[in-house]
């Protein structure tokens, strides 16, 4: 495994988020971290991306401690799409995507043909080449996510990390972004690891799933092995039915309404009748 955490403790100031956490990101696959809010999955992603130094243990990339590697060397190997993204005001799509070439250039170096090819490929594969001159702040949510993914792709890394890339997107845009990531993995061998909240999306797109709770890795494996009624009850506190998706055949989790939720509201009459 090229990227992994080895028995790391993760904390913000004095608040410990995860202890003794070991994650091995499978090469050339799509991996998804899931778990309840506050379980530490985004913190783990920040540690994998070298954005959060562990209190103990280490994050290893290609056999080296990631925090002992030069920043540009890390940026040539992995790219991160965090939750919070801010673009300079008025910047165009193409100009923003050029930022992805920073790890491969010096401040005085004239862009090379390889730089141009990388930017053109990133614009094309994310399907924003035809609107390259548009300002980023004028785009829809789904378009902005594709542009930020293009920035990551322009880095030409073999590992792509994404923290909740579908948050605030409607279903159509969620599928668009996840389909793009699946295509990158299938067509170019990109190792993709991301945090998702929707376990049905995770089951549909992931090759490997990590399930976290309270800063601990509960289980991991293929979606078929991971998504069970007992695990969903144990980790999320939700009763569910797990069945095969009628089209893809992947596991599909159907939450069951609680008894309280299915009761009529107080003071409302219940009318019984016959058909």
Summarize the structure.
With 275 residues, the chain is an alpha/beta fold.
Report on this structure:
The protein is α/β, with parallel strands linked by helices. The protein has helices at 41-48, 71-75, 93-98, 113-125, 141-154, 171-188, 199-205, 223-226, 229-236, 259-262, and strands at 3-12, 15-25, 30-34, 56-61, 64-65, 78-81, 159-163, 191-195, 208-213, 216-221, 240-244, 251-255. Helix 4 (113-125) packs antiparallel against helix 5 (141-154) and helix 5 runs parallel beside helix 6 (171-188). It is globular. It starts with a strand and ends in a 13-residue tail after the last helix. Residues 270-275 have low confidence and may be disordered.
Strand content: 25-35%
Q: How much helicity do the residues have?
A: 25-40%
**Shape, per Cα inertia axes:** globular
Question: What is the CA–CA distance across the termini?
Answer: 62 Å
Largest β sheet strand count, sense and barrel closure: 6 strands, mixed
H/E element order: EEEHEEHEHHHEHEHEEHHEEH
SS-derived structural category: alpha/beta
Descriptive key words:
275 residues; 6-stranded mixed beta sheet; 25% strand; 4-stranded antiparallel beta sheet
Give me the secondary-structure topology.
Elements: E1 3-12, E2 15-25, E3 30-34, H1 41-48, E4 56-61, E5 64-65, H2 71-75, E6 78-81, H3 93-98, H4 113-125, H5 141-154, E7 159-163, H6 171-188, E8 191-195, H7 199-205, E9 208-213, E10 216-221, H8 223-226, H9 229-236, E11 240-244, E12 251-255, H10 259-262
Parallel strand pairs: 3-8, 3-9, 6-7, 7-8
Antiparallel strand pairs: 1-2, 1-4, 4-5, 9-10, 11-12
Helix pairs in contact: 4-5, 5-6
